[in-house]
Amino acid sequence: MEGTIARWYAVSTAKDTTRFEAQLAQVRRLTGAGSAILEVAPGPGYLSIALAGTGDYTVTALDISETFVRIARGKAAEAGVEVDFRLGNASAMPFDDESFDFVICCAAFKNFSDPVGALQEMHRVLRPGGRALINDLRKDVSKEAVDRDVDEMRLRGLSKMFTRYVLRSVLPRRAYLKSEFAALIGHTRFRTFDIQETPLALDVELRK
Ligand SMILES: C[S@@+](CC[C@H](N)C(=O)[O-])C[C@H]1O[C@@H](n2cnc3c(N)ncnc32)[C@H](O)[C@@H]1O
Predict the structure, then answer these.
(1) Per-residue confidence of the chain (208 residues) as pLDDT tens digits?
(2) Alpha carbons 194 and 126: distance in angstroms, whole number
(3) Domains of the chain with CATH codes
(4) Is 85 strand, coil or helix?
(5) Are residues 181 and 137 in contact, defined by beta-carbon separation less than 8 angstroms?
(6) Which of 4, 3, 8 is nearest to 163 (CA)?
(7) Which of 111, 116, 171 to mutate to test the pocket of ligand 1 (most atoms within 8 A of CB)?
(8) What Cα–Cα distance (Å) separates residue 137 from each residue in 171, 173, 193?
(9) What distance in Å separates the CA atoms of residue 136 and residue 133, rounded to the nearest whole number?
(10) What is the Cα–Cα distance from 75 to 44, expressed in whole angstroms?
(11) How far is the CA of 103 from the centre of ligand 1 (A)?
């Protein structure tokens, strides 16, 4: 996503604070204060900024979109928090081995052109014992689950119609079933994982 569509996404997801609060709670459950966290594909950067704002974590984030990296850096400066927003590809990360305690990736994995490469990179940059959490739309999501989620986003008019259409009809085509995700993990060095299904998404927890 670049240009206008990235700017539209940044505005339309800004109000979805319920989602960021739930994600923050998941991170707190899975990693302790003092952790070095990497967010893969942060888009406008709201979750990374919220994580850094707790004062409990060192946060780095990596996105392939120049527009999003620019937007996210601006929002972090406005919020007065420090996040190292970097430009780069999830399947060729510009980080040393074993740099992070925790990796999080939300609403993005289905877009990766090299999903196994991205998982292998998450494994490489995690410290031994580190965990990754990937949250993304499930392929077999129901229209009712999408509608409930879109209602919670507090969007209006065309933005609401467009978001509902994309979530119902476009994104599920790229998304994974639980069994397909497990098969991808089977091609990586991760040996310990758990996949939970919510009405909307897959929550994939991986341990190095
Ligand atoms: C729908 S946005 C999700 C943004 C944010 N995580 C959220 O939950 O709102 C998908 C993001 O994935 C990023 N992305 C897609 N392919 C990528 C790749 N290969 N490496 C890094 N980021 C990628 C896009 O630039 C975009 O920021």
Answers:
(1) 899 999 988 988 887 788 888 999 999 999 999 999 999 999 999 999 999 999 999 999 999 999 999 999 999 999 999 999 999 999 999 999 999 999 999 999 999 999 999 999 999 999 999 999 999 999 999 999 999 988 888 888 888 998 899 889 989 999 999 999 999 999 999 999 999 999 999 999 999 9
(2) 17
(3) 3-138+175-207 (3.40.50.150)
(4) strand
(5) no
(6) 8
(7) 111
(8) 8, 10, 18
(9) 10
(10) 8
(11) 14
106 lines ligand 1 (CB under 6 A): yes
Distance 10 CA to ligand 1 centre (A): 12
| Phi (first) and psi of residue 37, to 5 degrees | -110, 140
CA–CA separation, 129 and 116 (whole Å): 20
112 lines ligand 1 (CB under 6 A): yes
Residue bearing the CA closest to ligand 1, atom 16: 112
DSSP designation for 140:
T
Could you give the angle at the alpha carbon of 22 between the alpha carbons of 1 and 44, nearest 5°?
Answer: 25
Q: Where are the alpha helices (DSSP H) in 38-127?
A: 46-53, 66-79, 115-125
168 touches 144 (CB < 8 A): no
Q: Which two tokens stand for residue 206?
A: 């991986």
Would you give the end-to-end CA distance of the chain in angstroms? 30
